[in-house]
């Protein structure tokens, strides 16, 4: 039999909640594989000698290894292999953009049918959750190093760095500004894509490694980075993300009813405004909602708006669908649920009533010109194409930038012109001695897995430093 | 969890909590605030730091009952716990030797202006304070504010105590007499707006402490945006203190009213639940 004939190119699809049902609830959309489905998908992996998939995983999971264990029904082994390199498998299996990571480099991708690595990872993580005693908590024989590290922020970067350093024997404390851990995983990505219970349990795993977590701690306010270094911490890892929302800077943007995507998602996910008035934090959605932008954040905001009861939800994007940065899967999910894509349109101003509430938006039609620096065709307003659209709520979802609290309170921390912290990519070192940085604060908004990869590299370098003579 | 070391009722619907929060106490400065959350279903609300004690490791807040969250807080007793207590947030009030400083406060802000008046006096200023109340029964901390001021003027809307009228009237007279170098006005938005309008013709810089609706209080949501000098600012990181002559007051007032309907619904539901 030739190699070609042996290949099974039938990727096993994952069951999802039906669109008609899921727009009325916040429960998870994707339902996960059954054991049969997982085994079948795992059996498609040809166990490459030189597994290309691993080159696409920033945290270096032994992908053929855990997949083989699934195919052999040895789920405890699969779970151990995952946890060896990834403390947050249930999260990554759900939100990694696998099509541009491990699944892009899988050899079967060339045939249009890469192994569904993310779905398998998620399957194992969920199995482990329902079999809590299945894998022994291997308390590795690490000698306490008596070195103390402060990790600022409990998003994916902070959690990964903390877990790695704790496994190496260092005493790690995470300081988190909010009242819950998880960063964007908790306040940004909605429940129906990433249940908070999963974030909670993976954070608990990190804590079980001996990591201390201090909530309600805004570093730069309650303590500065320098104070931490003076008061007994040997190293500081900065992972505060890039959480400050950007706006369109057009007239009317401060009217009531105009929410940044961050505010809309924070009220919904972190503060559980979808359960108002049982929960105290309110949110407004009205009948017609316009979300501005074409990224994952825009998809999340629009899908939340539908679930909160909006009748018509528009995504207004100034280019065409091919230029949209959002993942194809999320675009599909949004469309299936009834989100209306209004492409090649851009807002000029928001219009309000006497009470200062937004009532409509004036839009231009756009056309695409020559490619710009990003390689995408530049949108240009078509003269005289302005028209008015009535809306109840507007949600600019334009991305975020670094928060100034840490940079402005930390002397000697060099920044880039985008306000991110200048960081050596290979080691996470910053311009300031004993301070490392990783995740969105170093790169600007990126992905969960890239933040984790950077955190892992920084943890290695911090460990090398702490165990060297200087440390 | 953050323990309430002591509770005091200052006047009708205005309460003081001294909260155990040693790390916040260590860094607190006049004009900063905290975000408080009470219970797992609670919302995050900002309250000004009214005082702090590094030895006891405590921070004092003073709040007025207005809606669900503040009324729920008002049911807590000494020894109870707040779920979350985050701070100190925002920029401290600018304290310098300006010369003569007039501190104007209304309602709960009488308490929050005390540390500012005290710091201004310590910096070598002559401090003249004006406190305004609706009526005599609501007067509190006359002695406290008095003890950190060179001069204290009290007004009541109905004239039931001291001078009848609004705080803007004595403010205007002081400005007319001359010699005032700075005004600080803290209290209800409408009061801060009118203090700013009063001092504007005199060109005396007037600092106000803005109170837009907030969620995180750390610059992450943009809910607290205000327009000052034609620029959008986030009150929680850039403020809460701003130059009152530059503030877009109508925008602030409109944004504060965003959730009136939901607030009413929430309060009715809660009141029903506690009466049953
Ligand atoms: C709505 C939305 C959807 C997304 N969807 C995806 C997706 O599907 N897949 C994907 O890969 N990526 C996605 N991303 C991007 C991804 O979430 C981020 O790239 C990632 O979370 C960055 O991780 P981080 O650890 O650097 O920062 P964050 O996750 O932002 O965490 C930073 C943490 O630090 C805390 N913090 C900030 N300042 C301080 C301070 N001064 N002191 C103490 N703590 C502080 C914050 O409160 C926060 O908890 C999405 C982002 C958003 C906003
Ligand atoms: C920086 C700052 C400092 C403050 N300091 C004090 C203080 O020291 N003492 C005090 O009594 N009050 C203070 N406030 C106001 C206080 O936060 C509100 O009174 C409180 O949030 C009302 O909540 P509620 O649920 O009781 O009332 P609700 O019925 O929910 O609201 C009543 C009104 O309060 C305002 N409000 C509601 N939610 C919020 C919120 N999350 N953030 C801000 N305002 C809100 C709205 O304008 C609303 O119409 C401060 C506000 C800010 C921004
Ligand atoms: S962590 Fe992400 S990139 Fe790595 S194997 Fe899992 S899904 Fe792929
Ligand atoms: S590249 Fe694809 S087929 Fe090869 S080992 Fe990795 S997942 Fe399996
Ligand atoms: S309260 Fe969220 S940015 Fe100020």
Summarize it.
Chain A has 471 residues and is of the alpha/beta class. Helices cover 33% and strands 15% of the residues of chain A. Chain A has helices at 3-6, 19-22, 35-43, 63-71, 75-85, 89-95, 102-105, 117-130, 156-167, 184-187, 196-208, 225-230, 261-270, 296-307, 328-337, 405-409, 440-443, 448-466, and strands at residues 148-152, 171-175, 212-214, 235-238, 244-245, 288-292, 312-316, 340-342, 345-352, 358-371, 377-381, 387-390, 393-396, 400-401, 435-437.
Could you characterize what this model shows?
The complex is a heterodimer of chains A (471) and B (276). With 471 residues, chain A is α/β, with parallel strands linked by helices. Chain A has three domains: 19-130, Fumarate Reductase Iron-sulfur Protein, Chain B, domain 2 (Orthogonal Bundle), CATH 1.10.1060; 148-243 and 401-466, FAD/NAD(P)-binding domain (3-Layer(bba) Sandwich), CATH 3.50.50.60; 247-398, FAD/NAD(P)-binding domain (3-Layer(bba) Sandwich), CATH 3.50.50.60. Helix content of chain A is 33%, strand content 15%. Chain A has 18 helices and 15 strands. In chain A, the strands form four sheets. In chain A, strands 3-2-1-4-15 form a five-stranded parallel beta sheet. Chain A has a four-stranded parallel beta sheet with strand order 8-7-6-13, with helices on one face. In chain A, strands 9, 10, 11 and 12 form a four-stranded antiparallel beta sheet that branches. By secondary structure, chain B is of the alpha/beta class. Chain B is built from nine helices and 16 strands. Chain B has helices spanning 22-27, 68-73, 109-122, 142-147, 168-177, 189-199, 235-238, 249-256, 260-275; strands at 2-11, 14-20, 33-37, 45-53, 58-64, 81-82, 84-89, 100-106, 126-133, 151-156, 163-164, 182-186, 206-209, 225-228, 231-234, 241-243. In chain B, the strands form three sheets. A seven-stranded antiparallel beta sheet of chain B has the order 6-1-2-5-4-3-7. Chain B has a seven-stranded mixed beta sheet with strand order 11-10-9-8-12-13-16, with helices on both faces. In chain B, strand 12, helix 6 (189-199) and strand 13 form a beta-alpha-beta unit. The A-B interface holds A 177-179, 187, 215-218, 221-223, 243-245, 247, 253-257, 259-260, 262-263, 266-267, 271-272, 275-282, 284, 355-357, 403-405 and B 23-24, 27, 37, 41-44, 68-69, 83-89, 215-216, 218-223, 225-227, 232, 237, 250-251, 254-255, 257-259, 262-263, 265-266, 269. The complex binds flavin-adenine dinucleotide (2 copies), iron/sulfur cluster (SF4) (2 copies) and FE2/S2 (inorganic) cluster. One flavin-adenine dinucleotide binds next to helix 9, helix 14, helix 16, helix 17 and helix 18 of chain A. One iron/sulfur cluster binds at residues 57, 59, 61, 63, 86, 92-93, 96, 98, 101-102, 117-118, 121, 449 of chain A.
């Amino acid at each position: 039999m030739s190699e070609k004939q042996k290949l099974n190119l039938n990727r096993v699809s994952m069951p999802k909640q039906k669109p008609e049902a899921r727009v009325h609830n916040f429960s998870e959309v994707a339902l996960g594989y059954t054991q049969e489905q997982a085994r079948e998908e795992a059996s498609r992996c040809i166990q490459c000698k030189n597994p290309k998939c691993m080159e696409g995983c920033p945290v270096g999971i032994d992908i053929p290894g855990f997949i083989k264990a699934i195919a052999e029904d040895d789920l405890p082994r699969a779970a151990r292999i995952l946890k060896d390199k990834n403390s947050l498998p249930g999260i990554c299996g759900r939100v990694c953009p696998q099509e541009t990571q491990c699944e892009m480099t899988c050899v079967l991708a060339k045939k249009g049918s890469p192994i569904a690595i993310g779905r398998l990872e998620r399957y194992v993580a969920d199995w482990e959750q329902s079999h809590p005693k299945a894998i022994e908590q291997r308390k590795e024989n690490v000698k306490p190093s008596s070195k103390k590290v402060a990790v600022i922020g409990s998003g994916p970067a902070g959690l990964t760095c903390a877990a790695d350093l704790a496994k190496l024997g260092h005493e790690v404390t995470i300081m988190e500004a909010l009242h819950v851990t998880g960063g964007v995983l908790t306040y940004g990505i909605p429940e129906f894509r990433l249940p908070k219970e999963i974030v909670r349990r993976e954070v608990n795993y990190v804590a079980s490694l001996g990591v201390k977590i201090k909530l309600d701690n805004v570093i730069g306010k309650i303590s500065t980075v320098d104070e931490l270094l003076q008061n007994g911490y040997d190293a500081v890892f900065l992972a505060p993300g890039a959480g400050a929302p950007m706006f369109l800077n057009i007239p009317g943007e401060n009217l009531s009813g105009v929410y940044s995507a961050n505010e809309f998602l924070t009220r919904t996910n972190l503060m559980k405004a979808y359960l108002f008035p049982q929960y105290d934090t309110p949110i407004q959605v009205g009948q017609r909602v316009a979300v501005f932008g074409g990224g994952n954040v825009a998809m999340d905001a629009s899908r939340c708006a539908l679930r909160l009861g909006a009748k018509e939800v528009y995504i207004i994007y100034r280019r065409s669908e091919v230029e949209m940065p959002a993942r194809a899967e999320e675009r599909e999910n949004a469309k299936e649920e009834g989100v209306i894509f209004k492409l090649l349109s851009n807002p000029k101003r928001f219009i309000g009533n006497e009470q200062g509430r937004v009532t409509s938006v004036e839009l231009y039609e756009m056309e695409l010109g020559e490619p710009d620096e990003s390689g995408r065709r530049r949108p240009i307003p078509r003269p005289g194409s302005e028209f008015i659209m009535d809306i109840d709520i507007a949600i600019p979802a334009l991305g975020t930038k670094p928060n100034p609290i840490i940079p402005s309170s930390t002397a000697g921390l060099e920044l880039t012109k985008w306000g991110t912290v200048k960081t050596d990519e290979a080691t996470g070192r910053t311009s300031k001695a004993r301070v490392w940085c990783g995740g969105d604060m170093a790169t600007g908004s990126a992905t969960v897995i890239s933040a984790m990869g950077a955190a892992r590299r920084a943890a290695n370098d911090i460990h090398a430093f702490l165990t060297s003579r200087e440390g | 969890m953050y323990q309430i070391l002591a509770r005091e009722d200052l006047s009708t619907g205005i309460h003081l909590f001294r909260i155990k929060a040693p790390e916040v106490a260590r860094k607190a400065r006049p004009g900063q605030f905290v975000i408080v959350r009470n219970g797992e279903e609670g919302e995050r609300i900002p309250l000004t730091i009214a005082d702090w004690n590094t030895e006891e490791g405590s921070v004092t807040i003073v709040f007025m009952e207005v809606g669900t969250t503040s009324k729920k807080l008002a049911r807590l007793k000494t020894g109870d716990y707040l779920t979350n207590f985050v701070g100190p947030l925002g920029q401290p009030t600018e304290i310098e030797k300006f010369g003569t400083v007039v501190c104007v406060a209304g309602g709960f802000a009488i308490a929050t202006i005390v540390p500012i008046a005290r710091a201004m006096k310590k910096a070598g200023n002559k401090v003249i304070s004006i406190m305004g109340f609706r009526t005599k029964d609501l007067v509190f901390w006359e002695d406290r504010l008095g003890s950190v001021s060179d001069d204290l003027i009290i007004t009541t809307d109905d004239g039931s105590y001291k001078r009848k009228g609004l705080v803007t009237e004595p403010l205007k007279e002081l400005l007319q007499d001359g010699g005032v170098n700075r005004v600080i006005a803290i209290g209800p938005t409408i009061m801060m707006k009118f203090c700013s309008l009063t001092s504007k013709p005199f060109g005396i810089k007037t600092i106000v402490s803005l109170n837009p609706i907030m969620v995180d209080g750390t610059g992450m949501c943009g809910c607290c945006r205000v327009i000052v000098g034609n620029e959008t600012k986030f009150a929680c990181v850039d403020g809460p203190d701003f130059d009152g002559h530059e503030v877009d007051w109508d925008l602030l007032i409109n944004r504060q009213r965003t959730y009136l309907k939901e607030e009413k619904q929430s309060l009715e539901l809660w009141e029903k639940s506690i009466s049953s």
